[in-house]
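Form 7-S
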Amino acid sequence: MVLAQIFYVIASFFPQSWTGFSMLAFKTLRSFIKLSLASAIMLCRCYINQLGVATLGTNDHSSVRVSNELGAGRPKVAKHEISMPI
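Output:
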């Protein structure tokens, strides 16, 4: 798609369709950048939150597993279970 657009601009088959850049094209650039940055920050926070949920879920799982093994009287198995989520 990008190559087709570049070809369209360079080939000049339709000279009146694109007359070049003007200051009007850059008039709303500031608001576009603000929206783009806000969107990028939201995406980063979403990924960070997903990593946090995965980490906390693994931590809870390992705590329950170690507690169950200790409650069953198997400390060697519990020691082995500590290293499993890592």
